[in-house]
Design goal:
This protein is an alpha/beta fold. The chain has eleven helices and twelve strands. It has three domains: 56 residues, 434 Repressor (Amino-terminal Domain) (Orthogonal Bundle), CATH 1.10.260; 126 residues, Rossmann fold; 131 residues, Rossmann fold. The strands form two sheets. A six-stranded parallel beta sheet has the order 2-1-3-4-5-11, covered by helices on one side. The protein has a six-stranded mixed beta sheet with strand order 7-6-8-9-10-12, sandwiched between helices.
């Protein structure tokens, strides 16, 4: 039995009878309860979708009440602080509070996070470089808890808005800058290979090489995480080669800090022997020695935009655009210069 667009919507009792489950079981799924087996929940969710069952939207909380749950896959860097600053700014304008959750480096929240979230519950969830399973998304939806993703690590469901930056253009601009300075042996250190932003930045890097007629060398592309240790470890390896690169595009400013340390330990001067371009333009970038040439990613603006979208959804409004990518900008400082003479 499948409902047509013009036929009456089935009742909870009719869906329960069709599936051979109790009415309270269907009600628990609708209310986001977690004390149901995954298999039963999946069957009920499938039936609700098949019958186009209209879930009752919870009333929007009055201004000054409720919480936004900000979920990071990993905290601990100034990158995270820029995101928090943007979220706090937009939430404060609505007199809404923010709570932080951290996934210890994982990109998918565990079941315990969902139980805690549904017990609160927040007015909405902001996910940073992480994503929900389809079942988790359904449970939030059943409780009218909207979700928005900042700097998505993958392709979210079509009805989940995302806010990010133009990563492809950022990689293109960083590599073009090094090429225009005269570099031809240019390496790239990326973030995790399974993250969309990492792949987009490397695609921009490759496009810049292609348009300059420089052959792409896969041995010069490394992936890791976006933190200092990855920049240091990959930097030591790349710069210890007899045919070391003269320029490196780092996937984050934190990686660039690790690169600066690796170059110093190997007796290389930046930018005389090696040029480095980072990504993010964190506040620390202007205080490194030398100050860091980098691609500015508007982190606080991304976070504030995502928060405003989330609160609009919590109010029952529709957001006109589901995918928002803000512009990036190359910021030239002291860490990049023409390559050393042969």
């Amino acid at each position: 039995m499948t409902s047509s667009p013009t036929s009456p919507r089935p009742t909870i009792a009719e869906i329960a009878r069709e599936l051979g489950v109790s009415v309270p079981t269907v009600s628990k799924v609708l209310n986001g309860r977690t004390d149901i087996s995954p298999a039963t929940r999946s069957r009920v969710e499938e039936a609700l979708e098949r019958h186009r069952y209209r879930r009752r939207r919870a009333a929007a909380p009055p201004a000054g009440t409720g919480l936004v749950d900000l979920v990071f896959h990993r905290l601990g860097s100034t990158w995270s602080m820029e995101i928090i600053r943007g979220v706090e700014r937009a939430a404060a304008a609505r007199r809404t509070s923010v709570i932080l959750s951290e996934l210890s480096g994982e990109h998918r929240p565990p079941h315990t996070w969902l139980e805690t979230t549904l017990a609160r519950p927040p007015v909405g969830v902001l996910l940073v470089a992480s994503h929900l399973t389809l079942a988790q998304h359904r449970q939030l939806t059943s409780r009218s808890i909207p979700c928005v993703v900042i700097d998505t690590d993958g392709e979210p469901p079509a009805d989940v808005p995302t806010v990010g930056s133009d990563n492809w253009n950022g990689g293109l601009a960083a590599t073009r800058h090094l090429l225009e300075l005269g570099h031809r042996r240019i390496a790239a250190i990326s973030g995790p290979a399974d993250m969309l932003c990492s792949r987009a930045r490397v695609d921009g890097y490759r496009s810049a090489l292609d348009e300059a007629g420089v052959t792409f060398d896969p041995d010069l592309v490394r992936s890791g995480n976006f933190y200092v240790e990855a920049g240091y470890a990959e930097g030591i390896d790349l710069l210890s080669r007899p045919d070391r690169p003269t320029g490196i595009f780092a996937g984050s400013d934190m990686q660039a800090l690790g690169l600066l340390r690796a170059a110093r330990e190997l007796g290389l001067r930046v930018p005389d022997d090696l040029s480095i371009v980072g990504y993010d333009d964190l506040p620390i970038a202007r205080w490194t020695g030398p100050s860091l040439t980098t691609v500015r990613q508007p982190l606080t603006e991304m976070a504030a935009t995502a928060t405003r979208m989330l609160l609009e959804l919590a109010d029952g409004e529709d957001v006109p655009v589901q995918r928002v990518n803000l512009a990036t900008e190359l910021v030239v400082r002291e860490s990049s210069a023409p390559p050393p003479l042969p």
